[in-house]
Amino acid sequence: MKNLLFILLSSLAVISCDWRVFDDLKSEATVQVINAPENFGDANFGQISSHLLDSSGNKYQNILIIGGSGDIPLFIINFSNGEISKHPVKLPGVDGLEVSNIIPLVPYNSEFLLGLSSLGKIYIVSIDKNPDAENEYTGTVEKSIDEMENISGFGRALDIYQNSNRTYSVIAASDNHIHYFETMDSAGVDVSLGDFNLTSTENNTFSSDFIKITEFDDIPHLIVGGTETDTNFWSIQIFSVYSSLLEVVPEERIILKGSEAYPGDEVSTIRLFDINNDDIPDIIAGCGDSIFVFQSENDSISYSSVPDVELYSTDRSLGKSIEIIDLDGDGTMELISTDPGIETNGSSGEVYIFKMPFTISKISPAVTIGTPENEKLFGSSLAGVPSSEMPDREELIVGGLNTLYLFYITGFEGDSSTDDDPRNIE
Asked: Whole-model pTM?
């Protein structure tokens, strides 16, 4: 086994990590711990993380981006060859960022491109290496939506869709509305196409916590997850962008919602994945108490009002974050979810790994990863990133209160070999 490498590349690419073995799994887990840079600010390093995309729309190997606050609220993390380097992203002319969402985008003329929300503003930012500082990156704001900053909660949920003509469709939630924009890539004018409230079929108030733009039959649709505040159950609404902008009526949308039989009071996140291979995305939603899976019916955009599958862990709240990645390189995806616990009352976080495909209607985790020692918010974020050493699989990165945990070995069946430890790669 190679010696651990703690190499100070420069004052701007600080190495601060250690290796740990988690003993509470079926098999030992090998983890590299990544601590916050000194100038990141506040105790939130690791709570907002994302992969990045290349110009072909594929995930970059060995790279993820972290968002937070402080003097430098964005850092690019590189974990090539088992070594950690941290690279600040400077944003000239932009002060006081507190990043709450990161959306990876396909870059056109830069190394990286992303959307982010911060304090009622939305930015589309291109990122390139700084030619004057070897270990720094410089971000350039390509477009911004900042006239909404006085609207309470604007940007609490965000998604950005890249159109073929290099424009962006931006959808954002505030406390009381959903807002939809078309924004140009360069010197074009931003156009607000409307904002609207959503209600349920019974006209209950609907609070939006998650938004996704996707295509069904080449038509952009919105998937909005949240809470029916009158019943305090989760709810998901799906509708066409173009037919429903100014007035969303029941006939134009699909509504999935919770009940006593399918409890939960929020939709923390939604992932789309074609489980039944009919070329229609199936809906996987973290709804507080459980994760519910809705598979498309009749090769069309229709879903049963009753979930096809429930993923659960007894007395836990699943689905704060969800990733669908191939952990072990066997060509079959795994679903990873989290319950980060509650910092204020000391409830410990957990990460859950579920085997796919789902063969029964109610499924418990194949592996549960417990909270590391002294960690307060284990599972506050998730990211799956491929490595150059093992390009046919993805490594799992889990966020904590002020730390990231990079799992090279999770203890999941097929992901437990010491050959998967980068310290053993010649």
From this structure: 0.88
